Amino acid sequence: MKESQFWFLQLITGALLLVLAFSHISTFSSLIGTGYKTGLEYSSLIERAKPLFYAIFYSVFLSVLMYHANYGLRTLLIEFTGGRYKTLITMGVFIVAFITYLYGLWEIIIFHLIAGGG
Amino acid sequence: MSTVTEKVEVKMEEKAVESKQITKEIVFKVYRFIPGRDTEPRFETYKVPVYRGMTVLDALFYIKENIDHSLAYRHSCRMGICGSCGMLINGLPRLACQTQVLELNSNIIEVKPLPNYPIIRDLATDFSSFFSKHKSVKPFIIREDKEEQENPAGEYLQSPEELLLYMQFSFCIKCGLCNAACPIMATDDLFIGPQALAQAYRYIVDNRDQGVEQRILVLDSAHGVWRCHFAGSCSAVCPKGVDPALAIQLLKRIVVSQSLGVKKPKHKTEIKPISKEHKPNPKIPEAPPRTVK
Amino acid sequence: MKEEKNEISKNVVPPKVVPKYKLGLKAWISPFKFNFERWMYTLHRVTAVILIVYVYMHIYVTSIRVLGGETGWTNLMNTFENPINYTGEIIVVAALAIHGANGIRLILAELGYAVGKPIRPEYPYKPSSLKGAQRTIAIILMILAGIMILFAILEYVPLYLQFFRG
């Protein structure tokens, strides 16, 4: 895949993240969601994690976020080190990102199952 | 009549003297580094008497002629068209011949060499990587019709609208101020730079050029067009209004639509050489026969 | 003679001791004297770094609800109830708002829209990319981001008051 295709995906994931991240934050706001104090209690976490929609939403959110953030991290590192270590940085960022991504996915699914979802 | 012209001449001379009236003395802090003698760069201060209309280049002439003969700097046309005298004057990359000393509104003027270029001596920097990056985008018209090139039958047609698509970017004087102002050039050595990218766009969008594929390899790489993040400083410091930032953003559209396989509306017209329909003017004598085989 | 003319730089010998000529990180974070878009670039980079650090931290910290159960989670939330934490969270929301707003503008500008057209340069040269629609769009987006930050601050004000009074 060419650099321009990676970059175009960055734009698409950025636009998607606007919607996803905003809805994630607004679940803790008093206007739209449950409010800060009540939204962060363990009981309300369990309640929100029951529906299947929770698992799907957060898996999609995590995937999109991991791509966008790590492409950005790779860009910052490549530009900072003067472009000499491009392949090394790409591989390193990919490994760290993949491990974090798998960990995050596992954690979402396990919590969904703990909360009693299907 | 001669007395009238004499009076006019005297008046003009008085005006010249009046305009060159020394208004004040300004301190110039100039970056000095002489290889072989200095191990690290230093700043030297010079007091220069300044008149209205004096440019920084005039001040450097004064310093070199009267105070310190060892100051080295590049200059040529002293009128903003050759692009030799680019320097970092009071924090911004500017052409020394185009910067009025009094317009800077400061009693201390700091003159440093252009950043992001290796320093040869004092205010002169090495432009060899600048030129090699420019060469790497193939800054010339590429055409595929070999027979037409060898034996031209007519002209390539270009309407004024097609000319306007790239004309602004052809005014580049290769002064290097844009590369000095770019924040990505400050950390990334291999980035080809706003000047080369703007020239690549100038040739791609020219309707006489057929070489998009040959340039895309350099442009679509990790150090090509994608290292630009539209900070716009290149356009802000360009002394000729070339606006490389605009060229790069329009170039990104071309590169992305090419790589995604999106069909773009053709901005090129068919090249039609004017040939057989042309009626020669009977008053103009015929051209002599070709001497070059 | 022709070969000598093209190889200008070979006659110029760069000094063995070359002083530092690249501006480095300073060019990324100090946009003083430069144009509006350069300030937006700096903000975009700074907020990106804040968000990357926060996101990685967030993924690992919230996993305590699986690893530590209810007690672990409640203890963690109790340690987070201090004004320093509230300020940090406001900063993260502000970073997200600014980064997102500038991102919308970059999506438009980097695809070649809202940056103006090539013109015939006339003195004083005001570049059309810095004058075009993208600058007004940027200001509108920054105002929207400011409104979102205001909402975030309003959200936290009762929490601050609760900490300092209750």
Could you please describe the fold and organization of this structure?
- The complex is a heterotrimer of chains A (118), B (293) and C (166).
- Chain A has 5 helices and no strands.
- By secondary structure, chain A is mostly helical.
- Chain A has a domain at 51-118.
- The longest helix of chain A is centred in the middle third of the chain and has 29 residues, at 52-80.
- Chain B is 34% helix and 14% strand.
- Chain B has helices at residues 2-19, 56-67, 128-136, 146-150, 160-167, 177-181, 193-205, 212-219, 233-237, 244-260, and strands at residues 22-32, 42-51, 86-89, 92-95, 108-113, 119-121, 124-125.
- In chain B, the strands form 2 sheets. In chain B, strands 2-1-5-3-4 form a 5-stranded mixed sheet. A two-stranded antiparallel sheet of chain B has the order 6-7.
- Chain B is globular and about 65 Å long.
- The relative contact order of chain B is 0.11.
- The mean pLDDT of chain B is 87.
- Helix content of chain C is 70%, strand content 0%.
- Chain C is built from 8 helices and no strands.
- Chain C has helices at 2-6, 8-11, 25-29, 36-61, 64-67, 69-79, 83-110, 133-165.
- In chain C, α4 crosses α7 and α7 (83-110) packs antiparallel against α8.
- The longest helix of chain C is centred in the last third of the chain and has 33 residues, at 133-165.
- The mean pLDDT of chain C is 86.
- Chains in contact: A-B, A-C, B-C.
- Chain A binds chain B through residues 2-5, 7-8, 78-84, 86, and chain B through 184, 187-191, 220-227, 255-256, 258-260.
